[in-house]
Amino acid sequence: MATKITPFAISALLVVLSGSASAAPEGIASVYEDSFLVGTAIKSSDLTGNLPAKNSLPCSEFNALTAENAMKWQHIQPAPGQFNFAMADQLIALAQQCGARVIGHTLLWHQQTPAWVFEDEQGNPVSREVLLVRLREHIHTLVGRYKGKVYGWDVVNEALNEDGSLRDTPWRRILGDDFYVHAFRFAKEADPEAQLYYNDFNMYKPAKVAGAVKLVKQLGDAGIKVDAVGMQAHYSLFYPSLSDIEQSMKTLRNAGVRIAITELDISVLPLPDDAFSGADITQSFAAHPVYDPYVEGLPATQQHQLAELYQQLFALFLKYADSVDRVTFWGTTDADSWRNNWPIRGRTDHPLLFDRNGRPKAAYEAITRHID
Ligand code: XIL
Q: Can 26 be counted among the known catalytic residues?
């Protein structure tokens, strides 16, 4: 692609240089609109009171919105048959106001799913039949309600181990090895037009991405098309390598599988040596000041490193633009990022494009300045 300096890129640069907190009129999504959607995750507190305004960052910068938590099972159906749609409805309203697509996250996951789903009244595991009915009811109710309004669903989240085998979860234990096929089938029944995705972390690992390709093929054999595989992309300044990410993108492209980058953030903070990379939300390490060095702000060197890495990543996404449908950031400003609390609670991380005051960072400038 030829180097293109768009009028927006220039105005974005001016916003950065002037340090203005106001959003640019079009946003990062417009810079990439010929290549892929650019999305963000909306936190629940933005879906409970007044909606973010039309000129707020989530609305003005992005054209795809995912609920960070509001559509997860524990929020949408906390007790049997008790559906709480208020926040999810607000997400749809926000997307309509912003002219953005809605991405539903997520229908089947072993995390943030209440224990009752897998248990009878005595606390014993339910039968396969009972769990299938519960899964069907959940998916039909949720996907059915937003039929035609949700562009695509993360149908199954994190079903794979690091070696690409199926993870041991209550879903698999009770339903069997084809548990994920049922989730996709129910979603397809409920909204045949919606896109359906498989989503996971550490997809830069060859074995794990191979597992995802296998899963997509098995779903294909069962007559279900997976529209994209989601690479969550909870990265850090220290891992993974760009070449590992590219290798996985190549594997997916060669297998004819489309790609969505679904939860992009880049932590700048150090971790204990024994911390393994990933995004298992149950991972937790003890806090220590040594792991929280940028409480007062991100020094210029790290700010620059972050910008450079974002620029390289977006260059890679553009290189694979014929296979990449969407790049979604897991949040908009550093103040809201889950990385402040994971995998060590209470830190001050700086993983996103906008700082704690909503000002665009050097990383924003780096990926909106030009497109190669
Ligand atoms: C995270 C949210 O950002 C947090 O607010 C919540 O406490 C835990 O979950 N993989 C996923 C996301 O698919 O749903 C997770 O989101 C991050 C890891």
A: no
Say which CATH topology domain 25-369 has. TIM Barrel (3.20.20)
Q: Which residue's CA is the nearest one to ligand 1's atom 3?
A: 338
Mean pLDDT value across the chain: 93
| Nearest atom, ligand 1, residue 109 CA | 13
Rg from Cα positions in the chain = 20
Q: What residues does each domain of the chain span?
A: 25-369
Q: For residue 370, what pLDDT is reported?
A: 59
Asked if omega into 106 is within 30° of 0 (cis), the reply is yes
109 lines ligand 1 (CB under 6 A): no
pLDDT in tens, 176-204: 999 999 999 999 999 999 999 999 999 99
